[in-house]
Specification:
Two copies of one chain form a homodimer.
Chain A: H1 3-22, H2 34-50, E1 54-59, E2 66-71, E3 79-85, E4 107-109, E5 112-114, H3 122-136, E6 144-150, H4 160-166, H5 168-171, E7 175-178, E8 182-183, E9 190-195, E10 197-206, E11 212-213, H6 214-217, H7 224-233, H8 256-261, H9 268-275, H10 288-291, E12 297-306, E13 315-316, E14 319-328, H11 334-347, E15 354-363, E16 366-367, H12 373-386, E17 391-395, H13 401-409, E18 413-415, E19 419-420, E20 431-433, H14 434-450
Chain lengths: 455, 455
């Protein structure tokens, strides 16, 4: 049987297995879900074992465990390490939107799977599981494969670095293959060739040793919320450039020619309409696709302080807090930018408050080697299944694990994403198209089929 | 028996009755406490009835009810209307401090009553109840008295205006007497001669129609938190003056001479130490006592938006919110300032966001007539019980009810406060000194004794 026929014949089961996995609420950031994390890892192991993979195991880390499996068909052939994650984002939202159906009761509606983790990243991980199954049951593998599926991607992979160092031999490979990104549209295939890095910090501004009456003390005691706002505001200038000294020093400035090469179809009116925004925003002089890929950002992800309940309370609060993240581009590094931010933020604090900055997590930006045989095989695979060459795209998101894996394992990564930016990855009603799931499996199968042509 | 002896003889009971009242969690801003509000009003009625007062009743409003009582000894004598409130602030705090003992299980520790409402305002209201009891059981009243004790002061008295209008005859009086302020210290008696007004608003800044992934969209979509911070920051200039056009137009600028007259003893180092602040803050050119009395302010009382939970979430939120209040001074008015704020805040909003401003509540600032017979009798009363003349003090707080009552009833107010600024009125561990409670009763008794001397 050819692989295409095999996929067609097992469509229903491929879907139902994924839905079962999506039922497990593997929210890595919430300690109440620790047992669910283990269940999610074990479910994946069971599936990998049933394919006949070797050394299938749930390996402990200092945090949530890692799932490993491999199939070595010939040690002299290249080895592909499939990286992904089985943990998911929390399900709450701050925008008042709620889930149409519960996040951990997956359903298929209008040709899409609705569930937390559907696209990010369980659905995209499962594409690889089913592609390998397909090959093993039809034409066979063309190289060795390993699976490294972690449980802490959504919290910044705090323990994976140590794990990879300790298991360097086990994880030895020639390329890392990842499906955790998007294509531009279902009829515009694209491959992510660069990723932004991330520096995520939490800041605290404190004034008096307790909450005060805003009438009795207001006007003479610094209000930590007002001060925090002032400090955050001063991090951008009128052209929306970030004001932290040295912030742009290592940013690669693309030439006009390079910028042209990366142009992708984009309709600003459609974009505004889809997001319901009165206007776009951003650093002067760049297009929206550029702002979200080749330019760094500074966004407040959360802010809180004082009285936030029902009604009104005239309090002059003691503290105010914010979670701030910066998206980084080549050749900024997380360590460098975190240090620059911290230094500047402490420096701009007025003398009437105390300021604390805590680094939460981060990762360096990344650029793919588009000349490797693995990238070329992947590019060809998209062309075969989508019927057109994929565009090169810079992604705004971060996969800090990639530069980290590159450092420890010494190999490049190829990003074969099949989601859409409109999948609501970190929002309520996260979904993943059935079209995307199945074409993903076909494309990954095609990748292995094409690979020997580029050896 | 003379009044002093009577107070001494009934000290224990005067205290235990107040403690009973403090046990009732009459938090007006939380709808879960509606039944407690009624219980607190009824408890007070029971006490007033037992004194032999007339027309004691719990009168409905569109919100929490009002307690009324009166004793008319001679219609040709002046009538004092005692105003106060039986509602209290919520008990939560944003500064991490907690209550040493539960807020609604009052205890006496180190000579102080610890409970929510101890000083603001149940304890100070009960001073009047016990002063009237003392007089009725000893030398008798020297004028007519009425009680008007409301249940919505902490939420801005939204229904009292309508109530007063409807009960104008019932409430007819010659002066309003209020104990809801502080003295400078237990050996520095003072009388509050001015109060700041208040304009309390809630603002909402919104961008996209849902929470977005900060990697995918960050840099091209306005972040409502960053924008809100920018807008809040721009409300003060470098000299910490408020930038809203016209904001200071009606502020009475005191002459150097007037400023000297209002000087009160103040130790800035002591103040910094007490509050645990590295430095004071505020509009350039004014002392701390001035900043908190004769100058207006703009403070953010609460801010929230995005992800504020444990861990980190890279969300570009859809909305951000803040509660902002402005303290006003003569001759600013709440309506004028609320309108100026709203206009300016909408005007400074960048085109990439939507902004909403909602007025929550407020009140006008107030200045006492220090030449009235009521003020003079009160001044003399302090001098008798404290052994020295009270200083005149401008208070930073607001009692919006005063200008409102003045408008409807056409009479002035005299503020006889007995608390201390350090009583933690709106914070955990609110307390009220036993010294202050008892000297308050004595001073109010002395007020009625002195009053005929100024007829």
């Amino acid at each position: 049987m050819n692989p295409k026929q095999y996929i067609e014949n097992h469509k229903e089961r491929f879907l139902s297995e994924l839905l079962e996995w999506l039922k497990i609420p593997s929210v890595s950031t919430e300690s109440s879900h620790t047992a669910d994390m283990k269940r999610a890892a074990e479910y994946l192991c069971k599936q990998l074992t049933s394919l006949g993979l070797e050394r299938v195991s749930v390996l402990p880390t200092k945090g949530h465990p890692v799932v490993f499996a491999q199939k070595i068909i010939n040690p002299s052939l290249p080895t592909v390490l499939i990286y992904g994650h089985y943990d998911v984002q929390p399900t709450d939202s701050s925008d008042g939107r709620t889930w149409t159906s519960p996040p951990f009761e997956p359903v298929v509606r209008d040709g899409k799977i609705y569930a937390r983790g559907a696209t990010d990243d369980k659905g995209q991980v499962y594409i690889h599981v089913k592609a390998i199954e397909t090959l093993l049951n039809t034409t066979g593998l063309t190289c060795n494969v390993k699976f490294l599926i972690e449980g802490e991607e959504e919290i910044g992979s705090p323990h994976l670095g140590e794990f990879v160092e300790q298991h360097r031999n086990l994880l030895q490979c020639d390329v890392i293959l990842i499906s955790d990104t998007s294509i531009l549209d279902n009829d515009i295939p694209s491959m992510t060739v660069s990723l932004r890095g991330l520096s995520y910090v939490e800041v605290e501004v404190s004034s008096a040793n307790k909450d005060l009456h805003s009438g009795v003390y207001g006007g003479a005691v610094a209000n930590p919320i007002n001060v925090l706002c002032q400090m955050i505001a001063s991090l951008h200038d009128a052209n929306r450039r970030i004001t932290i000294p040295g912030f742009y020093d290592n940013v690669i400035q693309l030439s006009e020619e390079e910028r042209k090469l990366r142009q992708v179809p984009f309709d600003v009116e459609e974009y505004k309409k889809m997001l319901g925004i009165p206007d776009v925003w951003g650093e002067k002089g760049y297009t929206v696709p550029e702002l979200t890929s080749i330019r760094p950002t500074l966004d407040v992800n959360g802010i809180w302080g004082g009285f936030t309940g029902e009604g009104s309370k005239t309090v002059l609060p003691s503290k105010a807090f914010a979670k701030i993240s910066m998206r980084l581009v080549p050749n900024q590094t997380c360590d460098e930018i975190t240090a620059l931010f911290t230094k500047y933020f402490l420096q701009i604090a007025p003398p009437s408050v105390r300021v604390k900055v805590t680094s939460r997590h981060g990762g360096d930006p990344y650029m793919t080697n588009t000349n490797s045989m693995f990238f070329k095989a992947a590019e060809k695979a998209y062309e075969r299944t989508f019927g057109k060459k994929p565009l090169y795209e810079g992604s705004g998101g971060s996969i800090p694990i990639i530069p980290m894996l590159k450092k420890h394992l010494g190999v490049d990564a190829v990003l074969m994403g099949f989601g859409l930016d409109s999948d609501d990855a970190h929002s309520p009603d996260e979904h993943f198209g059935l079209f995307n799931y199945y074409i993903g499996i076909q494309t990954v199968v095609a990748f292995y089929e094409e690979l020997p042509n580029f050896f």
